[in-house]
TrEMBL record, chain B:
Pfam families documented for this protein: FAD_oxidored
Keywords in alphabetical order: 4Fe-4S, Iron, Iron-sulfur, Metal-binding, Oxidoreductase
Domain of life from the UniProt record: Bacteria
Gene3D superfamilies according to UniProt: FAD/NAD(P)-binding domain (3.50.50.60)
PANTHER family: COB--COM HETERODISULFIDE REDUCTASE IRON-SULFUR SUBUNIT A, FERREDOXIN:COB-COM HETERODISULFIDE REDUCTASE SUBUNIT A
InterPro entries: FAD/NAD-bd_sf, HdrA-like
Native organism: Sphingobacterium arenae
Descriptive protein name: FAD-dependent oxidoreductase
Length: 360, 452
């Protein structure tokens, strides 16, 4: 039934289908489900310590999303209510969506059902991994009564600190669902995807429109021992992205062994001018870590030294430092900069030359 | 004269009679004479705070002889001495808008301390502080000083200007310090005091609001546990103490916020002014007295009897004092509309952030909007070879409440110095420097310059 359901609704949207309430974000990968794998996970609960995490797979056997059928209680004011919902995650553990059982609905205080706007609000809160609702524990959700006040209300007012981050009247439901999305199951999803990682799958995630997915993929490149050209080109392409954090991420995780290939070094050097200026020192540092740096790159760096300032200049000199003893021509060009009309640059060059090891 | 000479002789004789017998290793030091010095420099920066450090490094790296005068004991201003060590905001709508030397220092401090930068690709929504960068203040102070030294900047601590007069070379600034009186002749003068102090000494008018934003003494408290507190009772007792006059209304707007934030950026000291020794002394005493008074009171309450001060900054940090009467004043509308001026030299991105007796309700910019700072807002009307950087730029009060923040000040510091560098090279005043030249120099030094 699940496969038929996905086959009929292969695109996801924030829409209310007849008899079934479901809200989804755009998935990392197309949801062409061919198979489902059941995985037993620990819930951390006492009454139901184990549960099933369903892994949805392509025909190739790659995971494309996950879901768990939640059946739990939401308790407040001394009474408990059953919450039944299917929660969905992308392959990288990002929230994907939720779906209620047929004819099911969520309700607020005094059993009032959610309206469309409230479902949308809940969906947006669940999609926000940084929502401040995550900073509240269960006890902080409502203000504590002082001893002088009687506790005689079916619904107590929500703490005003938490109100902006929950659906009004459904604070406990919002809190519970958010913590289910970002709790242990998220980590189980990530581990399951890591176990299934392969180069083609990695490329798919590097191609995701969502930046979190790209970070996720970059952080896990090291799991694979071999990276095809497509992966390398994609990562170098990130260096010219407008997102500072993505560029920083890419530079940080670049595997050192990629630099053994001179053509990769050339691609990296070509990216120098489009990398955000603040990150150019980092790219220069990366070039300096390679055991053998392409000579044409070294000469190019040397020729551009007079136009460099501050950390870029420092990083460029350090990059060259490793290779200088064996490159007299480069040393000669650098030495010529001692006559630079900018005393700061001349001083940097002088200091650098004093530190260069001499050849025996 | 004979009498005077006789007395002097008697004095000399008595001195001879009272010359101490020196122990081994001791050296006799005669009465101190104030050391008078005359210096010349290309660029003089007054104020080694958030903007001043960046300005000095920019000038030094551009090859100019640079002196930086600071009246305190270390560089960094509000970021270090003030303890507001979370500069921002460098990124707007996912893209970096303020880079250059300020960002270089900040990210190096983060990296050295093994801290992590925020993820700027995640929108901060209403929580703009998520995109501010938490720094280790003492580390940052050392790092920026190191950068100044590396750039060849002549650092002079514990000095303050007492006279600024025009000179054929540009300006002659007289400073006094501990045991020193120095005349510094400079070609270009950059006022990074934050209070437009040097501009005022130079004879130019300033602008000020009748009521300025409060200052804040930064501190940290501990010795209690939030979940052990009867917050309703604490609030009631606190409010009663304010009503009785035992505590001053408005200094801590919400006691729960004070306790939950453990003192981080929660205090308001009305009228705090860092301009002169007298005014800054008052601000510091008020800040400390407020904290002490509040601590003594809170320690009488259940759950807070063990309340402790864990840390406290040396000074009350100040938000607003004086602004220059500049060639152009950035208006609130300029700011919120994200106007990019033809002579824009840096961006500025922060909500309109006016602190008053009600607290602060930041007003965020509409999506996609980023304000800019025109060069004209940094130049006092009618001046030559004089430019400012930092919170004293020409702006109306609302615009100023957003422009005054640290990342913007860093951007302004670099821009002001770049303008001064070019003015010195070309024999001009900063207002005459071609904007294209200025943008080119800034870009070469890693700054992000708005495209007009």
């Amino acid at each position: 039934m699940l496969l038929v359901f996905y086959g009929v609704t292969s695109t996801f949207s924030q829409q209310r289908q007849e008899d079934t309430i479901r809200y989804f974000t755009i998935p990392t990968l197309p949801q062409n489900v061919a198979d489902v794998n059941s995985m037993l996970i620990d819930t951390g609960g006492v009454s139901a310590p184990k549960d099933t995490l369903f892994q949805l797979l392509t025909a190739r056997g790659d995971p494309i999303s996950y879901y768990r059928k939640i059946s739990t209680e939401v308790c407040f004011d001394g009474s408990c209510r059953l919450l039944r919902v299917d929660l969905y995650w992308n392959v990288t553990g990002r929230y994907l969506g939720f779906e209620l059982p047929p004819k099911g609905f969520l309700s607020k205080a005094e059993h009032e059902p959610f309206n469309e706007q409230e479902y949308q609000q809940l969906h947006a809160i669940l999609a926000d991994s940084l929502s401040p609702i995550g900073n509240f524990n269960y006890q902080n959700l409502i203000p504590q009564s002082s001893a002088a006040e009687g506790v005689d209300a079916v619904t107590r007012p929500t703490s005003k600190d938490v109100l902006p981050y929950v659906v009004k009247g459904a604070v406990f439901t919002t809190h519970k669902m958010w913590n289910l999305v970002y709790g242990q199951v998220q980590r189980d999803v990530e581990h399951a995807t890591e176990a299934a990682l392969n180069p083609g799958f990695l490329v798919d995630m590097l191609n995701s429109d969502d930046i979190w997915d790209r970070y996720w993929a970059l952080d896990r490149m090291h799991i694979l021992s071999d990276h095809p050209l497509q992966v390398k080109d994609k990562v170098v392409g990130f260096l010219c992205d407008s997102s500072y954090n993505l560029v920083l991420h890419a530079l940080t995780v670049l595997p050192k062994d990629w630099g053994e290939d001179s053509s990769f070094q050339q691609k990296l050097w070509l990216a120098f001018d489009c990398v955000p200026p603040a990150l150019r020192p980092k790219l220069m540092e990366k070039l300096g870590t390679y055991e053998k740096l392409d000579r044409s790159i070294m000469l190019d760096i040397t020729d551009r030294l007079p136009t460099m300032y501050g950390p870029v200049l420092t990083a460029a000199l350090q990059c060259l430092r490793n290779y200088l003893p064996k490159e007299p021509e480069i040393l000669r060009r650098v030495t010529a900069l001692l006559d630079h009309n900018n005393p700061y640059i001349a001083k940097q060059i002088k200091k650098f030359l004093q530190e260069v090891p001499t050849i025996d | 004269m004979k009498r005077r000479s006789a007395i002097a002789t008697l004095g000399a004789i008595s001195l001879g009679l009272t010359t101490p017998r020196l122990l081994k290793g001791e050296v006799l030091q005669g009465p101190r004479i104030i050391k008078k010095e005359k210096l010349t420099t290309d660029i003089l920066v007054i104020g080694g705070g958030t903007a001043g450090v960046v300005a000095a490094v920019q000038a030094g790296r551009a090859g100019k002889k640079t002196i930086l005068v600071e009246n305190g004991s270390m560089l960094g201003g509000t970021t270090t001495t003030g303890g507001v060590a979370f500069p921002g905001i460098f990124f707007a709508w996912g893209k970096q808008v303020i880079g250059g030397i300020g960002w270089e220092m900040v990210q190096e401090a983060v990296g050295f301390n093994d801290d992590k930068l925020p993820d700027f690709s995640v929108p901060h929504g209403r929580q703009h502080w998520h995109h501010q960068v938490r720094l280790n203040g003492p580390l940052y102070a050392m790092m920026i000083e190191d950068k100044c030294v590396e750039a060849g900047v002549n650092l002079r601590f514990y000095e303050t200007p007492v006279e600024v007069v025009q000179h054929k070379e540009g300006w002659k600034v007289t400073t006094i310090g501990k045991g020193t009186k120095t005349e510094i002749v400079c070609n270009q003068l950059i006022d990074c005091t934050g209070n437009a102090f040097a501009v005022s000494l130079a004879g130019f008018n300033l602008l000020r609001e009748k009521e300025t934003q409060p200052g804040t003494l930064m501190f940290r408290i501990g010795g209690y546990s939030m979940d052990q507190l009867d917050m309703n009772r604490i609030k009631d007792e606190f409010n009663a103490a304010v009503n009785r006059g035992d505590l001053i209304k408005g200094e801590f707007l919400h006691v729960e916020s004070l306790l939950r934030n453990a003192g981080d950026n929660v205090q308001h000291i009305a009228g705090a002014d860092a301009t002169t020794s007298v005014s800054h002394t008052i601000a510091n005493i008020n800040g400390r007295a407020s904290l002490f008074r509040t601590l003594k009171f809170l320690r009488t309450l259940p759950g807070l009897t063990g309340l402790k001060v864990l840390d406290m900054q040396n000074e009350t940090a100040v938000r607003e004092t004086y602004r220059i009467d500049s060639i152009y004043q950035v208006t609130h509308e300029d700011y919120v509309m994200g106007r990019i001026f033809e002579d824009a030299v840096c961006y500025s991105y922060y909500p309109i952030d006016l602190h008053d007796e009600q607290g602060v309700i930041p007003k965020h910019l509409e999506e996609g909007r980023v304000a800019s700072v025109p060069l004209r807002a940094l130049i006092p009307k009618g001046s030559r070879n004089l430019i400012v950087a930092g919170r004293c730029l020409g702006s109306d009060r609302l615009a100023n409440s957003a422009l005054r923040v640290q990342a913007s000040c860093m951007g302004m510091g670099q821009a002001a110095a770049a303008a001064a560098v070019l003015a010195h090279t070309q024999g001009k005043t900063p207002a005459e420097v071609a904007i294209s030249d200025l943008k080119k120099l800034l870009t070469e030094h890693g700054a992000i310059v708005p495209e007009g």
